[in-house]
């Protein structure tokens, strides 16, 4: 019976290690997702500022080279925005995958934990039953010796 518990505990250690590794992978994916999202936010904010500046300057006289320069900046930012949107999407997919693996690993660990609890309860009940049986035998022997 102890061998069963030892086997379950070894498997539990393995599952717990797997869960901890998946937790680390999930956190790394979360950090990357947040980093890429923050970079995308910064790009969008810079783009918005340039567009606002362009709109206000269009109401006054604008030099052609300033217009061309602003247009080039906007195009660069749009290109960076598109690249970062793709990275954010991929990071979100990766994050969801890591979360799913983490959840599955946690479920597997908890399932084994329940199995171990049931086995321990079974062992305790069996030992209690054996103890009661031995006490009954001792009582019978004492009775027979005294009344016998």
TrEMBL record:
Keywords: Cell projection, Cilium, Coiled coil, Flagellum
The keyword Coiled coil is annotated on this UniProt entry: yes
InterPro entries per UniProt: Flag_assembly_chemotaxis_eff
Highest taxon of source: Bacteria
Coiled coil: 67-133
Protein name per Swiss-Prot or TrEMBL: Flagellar FliJ family protein
Source organism (scientific name): Piscibacillus salipiscarius
């Amino acid at each position: 019976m102890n061998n069963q518990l030892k086997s379950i505990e070894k498997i539990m250690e393995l599952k717990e290690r797997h869960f901890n590794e998946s937790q680390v992978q999930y956190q790394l994916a979360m950090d990357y997702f947040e980093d890429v999202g923050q970079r995308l936010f910064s790009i969008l904010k810079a783009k918005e500022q340039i567009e606002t500046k362009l709109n206000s300057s269009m109401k006054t006289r604008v030099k052609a080279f300033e217009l061309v320069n602003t247009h080039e900046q906007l195009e660069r930012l749009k290109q960076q925005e598109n690249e970062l949107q793709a990275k954010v999407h991929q990071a979100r997919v990766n994050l969801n995958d890591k979360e799913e693996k983490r959840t599955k690993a946690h479920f597997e660990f908890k399932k084994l934990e329940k199995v171990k609890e049931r086995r321990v309860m079974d062992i305790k009940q069996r030992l209690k039953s054996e103890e009661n049986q031995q006490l009954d035998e001792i009582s019978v022997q004492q009775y027979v010796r005294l009344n016998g």
